[in-house]
C-alpha cells in the first residue's frame, strides 16, 4: 500500500525535481498525448467496473483500477485543455497537497493545526495586502461560490444581526444587485440564504459586459421606492464568459452613497493584482467590503484554493457564524483562544487549503506569480493577432482579460450573414466541433450562447504550460474539425 515511507520518498523525489520544469513539461506532453479518451457512459461504467462488493480485490487489480481512472479522466494539466478557468497545477502546490493529505489535518483549532492556523493567517494577510488593506480578516472556503455566499450572509448580518437568532420572519424584503454576466452563485446564494432569486436585481452592462454604475444607481432608487431594502452589490472582476471587469471605483461611489455592502467576486480575475501592468483592471477594489479570490484558477494553485477576504476588523466572521461549541472552543485553554479560527466558518471540518498557495508563493515569489499572469496576457495577444489573420475566425470583441470569445465561420457560411437561417446554422457549428474534438481527444474548449448571441467558443489561455505552438495547434485544429460544416 501507499504508506508513510512511500509518501516521504515521493516528496523527496518531488523536491529533487522542483527546478526541473522542462522535465515536467516533457512528461506532460509524453504521457498525456490526448486531452481525453472519450467513452460513452455505458461503456465507461463497464470498463471501470464501478460496482462495490463484499470482498476486496488483490493489489494487481487495484493498480489496474488506478491506471483506468487516470486513463479515462480528462487531463486538465494538458497544455491543450482550454475548457475551464482552471488548468494544470503548480508542482510546488502539488507537493503541498500530498503533505496536507498525508497529515489529514482539520483546520479548526490551534491545538490540532498549529502550523496551518498561523500559515492561513499569513497567506490571507498577503492577499489582503495586494487588495490594498493593511488590516482585515478572511477565511479559505470550499470554492468561490461559497465565498460569495459568505459575503451575502455577512452583509445581511451586519444590517440585521437578529437574523442569526430569530431567523427570516422579522426581515423586510432584501435586494441584491449584480450584473447578468455575474457568476450563477449569486442567485444560488440568494436562494440558499432565503433571500430569493426574485430579489436579485440585474443591472445593465455595457457592450463589453461591464456593470453600468448609472443603471445600478437607478435600480437601487427604484428598489427603495418599492419598499425593499437594498443591502449588497456583487461586482465581478473577470466575468465567467467574457472576462469583463466591472468599474469598481464608480460602483464604490454608488455603494457609499446608498450605504450598501460592496462585494467583489474576483474568483477569476483577482490574480491580476500580482501584476503591476494589469492590476489597473481592479482599480478601486480597496474600497470594497469583501473580495472572493480563487488562486486555484489563474495561479494554478490546484483545486481547491479559494479565499474570502474582508476589510472588517470587528470580528464579524466569528460573530455571524460562531456556535460556541464548548467541546471544541473552550475559553479556558492554555493558549490564546483567538487562534481557534474554526468558529469563523459555517463548516466544522475544514481542509487545509493555504499550504498549496504558501509553498508555491515561497518557491517563486510575488515576482514569479506576476510573470505567470503577464505571460497569460502575452499569449492572448498572440492568439488574437493570429485569429485576425485567418478568414474563419470572428471575435465577439477585443478581450479585456484572458478569455477569448469567438465564432468559427466555416467556408459554407462565409458571406451569407444576410441569410434568414444564418444564425440558426451558425449556432450548430460550435457544438459539432466540440463533439469532434472530444471524441478525437485532441483538445478541449468550451462554448455557450450569451444573450442574443448564438453559440460561440470561449478559449481560456493562462496555463504556464501553454506555448505559442499550442495556440497555433488550437487554431489549426478548429479549422480542421470545422471546415466541412
Automatic annotation (TrEMBL):
Necessary cofactors: pyridoxal 5'-phosphate
Residues in the signal sequence: none
UniProt key word Transmembrane: no
Keyword hit for ATP-binding: no
Residues bearing the modification N6-(pyridoxal phosphate)lysine: 297
Keywords from the UniProt entry: Decarboxylase, Lyase, Pyridoxal phosphate
Single biological process term from Gene Ontology: heart development
InterPro entries for this protein: PyrdxlP-dep_de-COase, PyrdxlP-dep_Trfase, PyrdxlP-dep_Trfase_major, Pyridoxal-P_BS
Cellular component GO terms, alphabetical: cytoplasm
Pfam families assigned: Pyridoxal_deC (PF00282)
GO MF term set: pyridoxal phosphate binding; sulfinoalanine decarboxylase activity
Subunit structure: Homodimer.
Family: Belongs to the group II decarboxylase family.
Name of this chain's protein: Cysteine sulfinic acid decarboxylase
Species of the source: Seriola dumerili (Greater amberjack)
Top-level taxonomy: Eukaryota, Metazoa, Chordata, Craniata, Vertebrata
Amino acid at each position: 500500500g501507499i504508506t508513510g515511507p512511500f509518501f516521504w520518498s515521493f516528496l523527496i523525489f518531488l523536491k529533487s525535481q522542483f527546478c526541473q520544469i522542462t522535465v515536467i513539461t516533457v512528461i506532460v506532453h509524453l504521457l498525456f498525448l490526448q486531452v481525453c479518451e472519450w467513452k460513452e457512459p455505458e461503456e465507461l461504467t463497464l470498463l471501470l467496473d464501478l460496482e462495490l462488493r463484499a470482498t476486496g480485490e488483490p493489489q494487481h487489480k487495484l493498480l489496474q483500477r488506478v491506471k483506468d481512472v487516470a486513463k479515462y479522466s480528462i487531463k486538465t494539466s494538458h497544455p491543450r485543455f482550454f475548457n475551464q478557468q482552471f488548468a494544470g497545477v503548480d508542482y510546488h502546490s502539488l507537493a503541498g497537497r500530498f503533505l496536507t493529505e498525508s497529515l489529514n489535518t482539520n483546520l479548526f483549532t490551534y491545538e490540532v493545526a498549529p502550523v496551518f492556523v498561523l500559515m492561513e493567517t499569513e497567506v490571507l494577510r498577503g492577499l489582503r495586502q495586494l487588495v490594498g488593506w493593511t488590516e482585515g480578516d478572511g477565511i479559505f472556503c470550499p470554492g468561490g461560490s461559497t465565498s460569495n455566499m459568505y459575503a451575502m450572509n455577512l452583509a445581511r448580518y451586519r444590517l440585521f444581526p437578529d437574523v442569526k437568532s430569530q431567523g427570516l420572519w422579522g426581515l423586510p424584503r432584501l435586494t441584491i444587485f449584480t450584473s447578468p454576466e455575474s457568476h450563477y452563485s449569486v442567485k444560488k446564494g440568494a436562494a440558499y440564504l432565503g433571500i430569493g432569486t426574485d430579489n436579485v436585481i440585474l443591472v445593465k452592462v455595457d457592450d463589453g459586459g461591464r456593470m453600468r454604475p448609472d443603471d445600478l444607481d437607478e435600480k437601487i432608487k427604484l428598489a427603495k421606492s418599492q419598499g425593499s431594502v437594498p443591502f449588497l452589490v456583487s461586482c465581478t472582476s473577470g466575468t465567467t464568459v467574457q472576462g469583463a471587469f466591472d468599474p469598481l471605483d464608480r460602483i464604490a461611489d454608488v455603494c457609499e452613497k446608498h450605504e450598501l455592502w460592496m462585494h467583489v467576486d474576483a474568483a477569476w480575475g483577482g490574480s491580476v493584482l500580482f501584476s503591476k501592468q494589469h492590476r489597473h483592471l481592479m482599480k478601486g477594489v480597496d474600497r470594497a467590503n469583501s473580495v472572493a479570490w480563487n488562486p486555484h484558477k489563474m495561479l494554478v494553485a490546484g483545486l481547491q484554493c479559494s479565499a474570502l477576504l474582508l476589510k472588517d476588523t470587528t470580528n464579524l466572521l466569528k460573530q455571524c457564524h460562531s456556535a460556541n461549541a464548548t467541546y471544541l472552543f473552550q475559553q479556558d485553554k492554555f493558549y490564546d483562544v483567538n487562534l481557534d479560527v474554526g468558529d469563523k466558518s459555517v463548516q466544522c471540518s475544514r481542509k487545509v487549503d493555504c499550504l498549496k498557495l504558501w509553498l508555491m508563493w515561497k518557491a517563486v515569489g510575488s515576482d514569479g506569480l506576476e510573470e505567470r499572469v503577464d505571460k497569460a496576457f502575452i499569449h492572448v495577444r498572440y492568439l488574437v493577432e493570429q485569429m485576425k489573420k485567418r478568414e474563419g475566425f470572428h471575435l465577439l470583441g477585443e478581450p479585456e482579460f484572458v478569455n477569448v470569445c469567438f465564432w468559427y465561420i466555416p467556408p459554407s457560411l462565409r458571406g451569407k450573414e444576410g441569410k434568414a437561417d444564418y444564425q440558426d446554422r451558425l449556432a450548430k457549428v460550435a457544438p459539432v466541433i466540440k463533439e469532434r474534438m472530444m471524441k478525437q481527444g485532441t483538445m478541449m474548449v468550451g462554448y455557450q450562447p450569451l444573450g442574443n448571441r448564438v453559440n460561440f467558443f470561449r478559449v481560456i489561455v493562462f496555463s504556464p504550460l501553454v506555448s505559442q505552438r499550442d495556440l497555433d495547434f488550437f487554431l489549426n485544429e478548429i479549422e480542421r474539425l470545422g471546415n466541412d460544416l
